[in-house]
Amino acid sequence: MNRKELNPESSPVAAFGERLRSLRDEHGWTQDELGERMGFSGTHISAVETGRRPPTPRFAASADKVFRTGDRFERQGRAARHTALLEGFPEYIGHERQAAEIRLYEVGVVPGLLQTPNYARVLAESAVKRGAITPDQAEERVTLVAERQASLIRESPPLVLVVLDESCIRRPIGNADTMDTQLARLVEFAELPNTVLQVAPFDMGDRRPFDLPITVLTLPDRSLMSYAESAQRGHLERESTFVLPTLTAYHQLQAEALPQAASVVMIEQLRKGTP
């Protein structure tokens, strides 16, 4: 019988599948036999073992129960389900939770740290309709947005500086109520004592230093880290020497963008339907 060989170091999904297959082999069970014990079909077991289907929370919990592995499969499952996120992003989130300062620039959509639950869900459900992610991965994305925002509410919250390309506030996401609530959330964000919100207007033209989203973190030890995304992947840069030019460009972006007061006025005008 031909078996697809998996490299457990290639991805969290492959690591989960390889571990599941290894323990099944140790017990001498067929995929159908394991499926019967876990409450899934043998075909489902095969799909997870070969990395064709990420494990759901219920699947991982059932595997831990059958193999008596504590919460190992549940922990691996969480990492595997993060494959709906761009490369480098799950690691970035861990540093974001510890950051003393967060500087971010976004294009096209409101960034996760500022999204309302409904706005986040519309984006996730749209990705499901396109076939980009599964419904389970969509739920994981929405949950992650809430977790990231909750991590910012701590005793010593980080300084959060946000510059939004004008497209973020003008691009309609969901219905009118979804957008109005989201724009209201941006205004509320700007009123917080530890935040700065600016809009980079379209007429900045070639004075705009970034074409893609970028985030710069200042960690508690004052070291720097940046995260940048393209359409297909993300890159986490830990070497401060390479982050400093990005930080300089971010400062230039802030100087060219609208001040916070003018940015809030623009957002409020959009809410009222005025140009």
Overview of this protein structure:
The chain has helices spanning 12-27, 31-38, 42-49, 57-67, 72-81, 89-96, 117-129, 135-151, 166-170, 176-190, 240-256, 260-272; strands spanning 101-106, 159-165, 195-200, 214-218, 224-229, 234-237. The protein is built from twelve helices and six strands. It has two domains: 12-83, 434 Repressor (Amino-terminal Domain) (Orthogonal Bundle), CATH 1.10.260; 85-111 and 155-272, 2-Layer Sandwich (Endonuclease, Chain A), CATH 3.30.870.10. Strands 3-2-1-4-5-6 form a six-stranded mixed beta sheet, with helices on both faces. The chain is elongated, with a radius of gyration of 22 Å. Strand 4 (214-218) and strand 5 (224-229) form a beta hairpin. The model has no long low-confidence stretch (mean pLDDT 88). It starts with 11 loop residues before the first helix and ends with a helix. By secondary structure, it is α/β, with parallel strands linked by helices.
Class of the largest domain, according to the CATH hierarchy? Answer: Alpha Beta
The CATH H-level superfamily of the largest domain is Endonuclease Chain A
Largest sheet: 6 strands, mixed
Structural class: alpha/beta
- State the separation between the terminal residues, measured CA to CA: 66 Å
- The total number of structural domains is 2
Rg, Å, rounded: 22 Å
CATH topology of the largest domain: Endonuclease, Chain A
Low-confidence runs (pLDDT<50, min 5 residues)? none
Order of helices and strands: HHHHHHEHHEHHEEEEHH
Beta-strand portion reads: 5-15%
Q: Overall 3D geometry? A: elongated
- So, CATH architecture of the largest domain? 2-Layer Sandwich
Give, in spatial order, the strands making up the sheet with the most strands: 3-2-1-4-5-6
Q: What is the residue-mean pLDDT, rounded to a whole number?
A: 88
- Helix percent reads 40-55%
